Every structure is written in structure tokens, then in C-alpha cells.
Amino acid sequence: MRKLVYVIAATLDGFIAAPDGSFDFFPLEPDVAPYLVADWPQTLPTFTHAQLGVASPPTGRFDTVLMGRATYEPGLTLGYTSPYDHLKQYVFSRSLTPASHPDVEIVSGDPTAFVRQLRARPGRDIWLCGGGQLAGQLLDEIDELVLKLNPVVAGSGIPLVDRGFAPHRLVLTSTRPFASGVVVLHYTRQTDSRA
């Protein structure tokens, strides 16, 4: 079955963006960029591929990306209506109209039911790009968490997972520290608790 993998940058205190949704305080560190290009090229926006030397199209484990509306919007403000053109893109929103965003598929229904339908279809793994509210709704469906932990304390912002108190124990499967202070932590779900 296809896995849902949440690959995301976060602060030491668990935020993935500022309160206004911006994330420019997460620089792409020079020592981390080659690792992302080699190991996670599909998680880099298509418009950055030439600059970063990513093969076109990039190979990897994903063929699908899921985004919340707030994760999709920064690309729109820069004029990118298809930020991950190398993947099938789904944006979860009740306010965006499909006709206004033809380069992505707008999903207004229940994210959990949608992900379960996606898993049943043939294909490669599914990347959960963000954001915190969508991750909160899909927490029970996430198989792996790849956390690019940055040496930053933000104090407030958009949390890694935005939902009520519901502890989920994960198993650490690998760590990758970088001289810049970034540590990539790879976790898998401890037990399969899906209904």
C-alpha cells in the first residue's frame, strides 16, 4: 500500500511557519541543499530545479503531493500556479475554486477519506507537504515523518501538527546532522493504529 510521508522543515519548538504563514526564516543551508537534491529531489519546487541542479523530471519515491491552501498560496503570490509540476498536486481547500486553479486539483472534501482512496489506487508514495491543519487532520494516516529540524526557536507560528491533544508515538529510524545545525530526523509510525 502507498505510504503517506510528511516531509517538512520545523523549528526546535515545533513550528513550520510564522504566524502569517511565511517561512523565509528557514534558509536552504549550503550543506543541506546537496542532501535534498540527492535524497529528496521531488520535495523541491519545480521552479528551483534548474538552479539547484535537479534532474528533470526528478526521480524518487513520490508521484503525488498534498498541500493545504496556506501551503499552496506562497507559490501563487510568486506567480507559480503549479509549484510541484513534476508530481500530481492536490490542494485541500473549501474556498478555492477548481476553475480558478486548473494546474492543481482542488479537494474540498474530507482529507482522510481522500487519502484512503488515494492509497487504494496504484502508484508511488504520497508526500504531505503541509500545512499544520492538514497534517492534524491526517495524523492518523501518516506513515512516516521526515523532519528537517532547524536550530531556530520561533516562539509562535503554525505548528507542525495542529489538532487537539492526541499523543502519537513514533519510532526514530535515522538521523542526519549537518554542520549548519540542521538535523534531519526520520520517524515511522510505531504501530498501525489505522481503523
UniProtKB/TrEMBL annotation:
One of its GO terms (molecular function) is 5-amino-6-(5-phosphoribosylamino)uracil reductase activity. SUPFAM superfamilies: Dihydrofolate reductase-like. Signal peptide: none annotated. It comes from the Bacteria. Pfam families: RibD_C. InterPro entries: DHFR-like_dom_sf, RibDG_C, Riboflavin_Biosynth_HTPR. Residues 3-184 form the Bacterial bifunctional deaminase-reductase C-terminal domain. Transmembrane segments: none annotated. GO terms for biological process: riboflavin biosynthetic process. This is Bifunctional deaminase-reductase domain protein.
